[in-house]
Design goal:
heterodimer, A: mainly alpha, 28 helices, 72% helix, 1% strand, B: mainly alpha, 3 helices, flat
């Protein structure tokens, strides 16, 4: 009887999901309700988790509950600690879910709500969550080794080096583009700038409290910090209204970019406890609180989606970034669908905490589903805006023109209604001087969130909600920036340690300063170019980040596919092989187009040539002509960087295939590096606390 | 209800590391009492320093 009810229940979930999904996909004309997106997502996640993930766990990976995990075998009370599964889930989710799933869907909304949403849902179920789960499993079976180590042990030295170099470059580009998002949110906004600036001393107060005043009382300290952060949002409003103070915080993009670069260097050199660790607490609490609030508000208010299912920009002429729907929607939305970066957390960090292999499905697959849900909400927040407003905020001045009149005329010519008065009123409501050309996704997400929160809790607080949303995004973008710079520094020190032992010591100050400076200079360069680029920089940097991130995902899936085939599971190799093939197709296509396309908004060389011709002919306005040589150099650099990514991807792929062919034809290959089976002692008398 | 709230509070403390020192003392008492030449347990402050520095070793945050 019980089984019968269960079958009916899952059948109903499947039916509801299919109904909601077809409602979204087949709807034309009439606007649809955001609740349909939520319903479709939740049903699809439930079915995928209950059936696909469970099938992978039992049939493909053959999870063994009686086997001792590294946390049990190597328990040292420091990094290897058997931990309650909910606690591991929390740590894992906090680590994987950064600003990526908020920015990507917002940008991809230029194609309409449908392509991005479908990719988020299908990509996560068949790709992203599978990648996280199998990587977590294989690393758990290998004493928590990192992705790079696994690639080296299982495929060969090439894969290992590729993973290492790939990680470093992704970090550099990711930080640059996130820095650009923050700069664009703070540009000429004294309120946003002063609030974001205030988060730095607040984090330091919290850090000193946790370290010296009341050591280890992290919840007390965080509570104080959160209250101070909320006050800083209000105080930002006072500063904005104070004629003598607002001048201190009213800046152009470039000085703000320099400030972020100086800040990034300081944050990487300062001890972790003073800035990074306390701010991470604040950003984690803020993130969880805000995302929950947003989910509740969407369910209660059931806002209508105003963006059409598909826009005309699927042809590649989109204002936010150039390029056709295929492959660029799959590159733009990485986090939320499939993100290679997660493989670094799923290997190395999380496996050392797992108390039992049976938790792998919930932590690997489940946490990624939750991140995907965050991406769906970001998509909703972007598409509940009137499309005209959405494009007015997100289109760079280089595309629609600097003057409000020109921008509005251009957007109207695309068939999206918006007026200058409407935009001025919106800016006034949000407490900003202007909302035109605020690229990067943060301001439009903040407007979307503010309008959702505003209709739930009262319109008069719109400006507060807007700056709260900006602060919320900035705070964990800055956390990723600090943490990423530090990781880059450690990797660089590790590499330099091979040449000079002293430089490899993580506490040797000259080495710390040198390596931090190199990493900061790396992302600082791309941030600088992004700011001076009249097309907004996002158009270049975000696809570059997407290609790099998908390349890392492909490397992780290569490692997983190789291990599956080597362990005699050829018939299940499609589980990781299918998403791998898809990633190779989209990454290679995108890279090809970014390098060779004739469209100046897509091809790097085309853009460089176009700019050189115009520069030589003297048709560029003086302010553009002065930066043109730098932009031309950068376009060339980006082209070679893209080429490098795609070559690395193919080399690792061929290396993996070569290894598989050798194995299947009976030739010797590197032995499986799985740790030997040891029975778990925790299973019998393990008391879950 | 109260029991559930207590359990939730327990999880929040564990997740945030608020009870890390208590966990450490428990671990220390369990594993290090047998032998004689074991160093005494660290103070709260000293432990917290080690714990926090360890927390940020490696890739801990991504996109």
């Amino acid at each position: 009887m019980n089984k019968y009810i269960k079958t009916i229940f899952w059948f109903a979930v499947a039916l509801l999901g299919a109904y909601a999904l077809s409602g979204i996909a087949l709807n034309r004309g009439e606007s649809i309700n955001a609740l349909w997106l939520i319903t479709a997502a939740v049903c699809i996640y439930a079915i995928a988790y209950r059936f696909y993930a469970a099938w992978i766990a039992t049939k493909v990976l053959m999870i063994d509950e009686t086997r001792a995990t590294p946390a049990e075998r190597l328990d040292n009370g420091r990094d290897f600690i058997p931990t309650n599964k909910w606690v591991v889930f929390g740590h894992h989710f906090a680590a994987i879910a950064g600003p990526g799933p908020l920015v990507g869907p917002t940008l991809a909304a230029q194609f309409g709500y449908l392509p991005g949403t479908l990719w988020i849902l299908i990509g996560v179920v068949l790709g992203g969550a599978v990648q996280d789960m199998v990587t977590l499993f294989f690393s758990t079976r290998r004493n928590g080794r990192s992705l790079g180590q696994m690639a080296r042990d299982e495929i060969g030295p090439i894969g290992g080096t590729a993973a290492l170099v790939g990680t470093f470059l992704i970090m550099v580009i990711l930080i640059a583009v996130l820095g650009l998002v923050v700069v664009n949110a703070m540009k000429h906004s004294p309120w946003a700038t002063s609030t974001v600036a205030a988060t730095i001393p607040i984090a330091m107060i919290v850090g000193v409290y946790m370290r010296n005043i009341r050591p280890g009382r992290v919840l007390e300290a965080s509570a104080i910090g959160v209250i101070l952060l909320l006050l800083s949002v209000v105080a930002g409003g006072w500063i904005d209204h104070n004629e003598s103070l607002r001048g201190f915080f009213d800046h152009d993009g470039l000085p703000l970019a320099y400030a972020i670069i100086v800040y990034g260097f300081a944050a990487a050199v300062l001890p972790v406890w003073l800035l990074l660790a306390p701010r991470d607490y604040l950003s984690t609490f803020m993130k969880l609180g805000t995302i929950t609030l947003l989910a509740v508000a969407i369910v209660i208010l059931r806002p209508d989606i105003h963006m059409p299912a598909l826009t005309q920009f699927t042809d590649g002429s989109g204002p936010i970034f150039g390029g056709k729907l295929f492959p660029f929607v799959f590159i733009t939305i990485a986090c939320g669908a499939i993100s290679g970066f997660h493989a670094l957390i799923s290997s190395g960090t999380t496996p050392k905490l797992l108390s039992n292999e049976r938790d792998i499905r919930m932590i690997g697959y489940g946490a990624m589903l939750l991140e995907s849900f965050v991406a769906v909400m970001a998509m909703i927040a972007a598409t509940v805006l009137e499309p005209g407003i959405f494009f007015a905020i997100n289109s760079p001045a280089g595309v629609v023109g600097k003057e409000a009149i020109d921008a509005v005329a251009k957007i109207n010519s695309w068939g999206f209604a918006v007026t200058v008065e409407q935009m001025n009123q919106l800016a006034k409501d949000m407490g900003e001087s202007s909302l035109f050309a605020r690229t990067g996704g943060a301001p439009s997400l903040a407007v979307g969130m503010a309008s959702i929160f505003g209709s739930a809790f009262g319109k008069h607080l719109l400006a507060l909600w807007y700056h709260f949303a900006i602060m919320f995004e900035a705070i964990f973008i800055l956390t990723t920036l600090d943490a990423g710079t530090r990781v880059g520094r450690f990797m660089l020190q590790d590499m330099l340690g091979n040449f000079n032992k002293k430089l490899g010591e993580t506490s040797y100050m000259p080495s710390v300063i040198l390596t931090s400076a190199i990493v900061v200079a790396g992302w600082g360069y791309f941030l600088y170019i992004g700011v001076i680029d009249p097309n907004g920089g996002v158009n270049i940097l975000w696809p570059l980040f997407g290609i790099a991130n998908q390349m890392l995902a492909a490397i992780a899936l290569c490692v997983a596919t190789g291990i599956l085939i080597k362990s005699g599971k050829l018939k299940y190799a499609w589980v990781t092989g299918l998403p791998l093939v898809w990633l190779v197709v989209i990454t290679s296509t995108a890279a090809w187009q970014k390098i060779f396309s004739d469209d100046v908004r897509v091809g790097f060389f085309a853009a460089a040539n176009d700019l050189s011709t115009k520069l030589a002919a003297g048709v560029l306005p003086p302010e553009k002509a002065s930066v043109a040589p730098q932009l031309i150099f950068n376009q060339h650099l980006d082209a070679y960087l893209t080429l490098f990514f795609v070559v690395v991807l193919w080399v690792v792929l061929f290396d993996m295939l070569r290894m598989c062919v050798r194995h299947l034809t009976g030739k010797p290959v590197l032995k499986l590096s799985e740790a030997p089976h040891e029975p778990s002692r925790l299973v019998e008398n393990w008391v879950r606390d | 209800m109260l029991k559930k709230l207590k359990h939730l509070w327990h999880i929040v403390r564990r997740l945030s590391g608020d009870d890390a020192y208590e966990q450490y003392l428990k671990h220390h008492a369990e594993f290090h009492t047998a032998s004689v030449d074991v160093p005494p347990a660290l103070t709260r402050k000293a432990f917290y320093k080690l714990w926090q520095d360890k927390q940020w070793d490696g890739v801990k945050r991504c996109c």
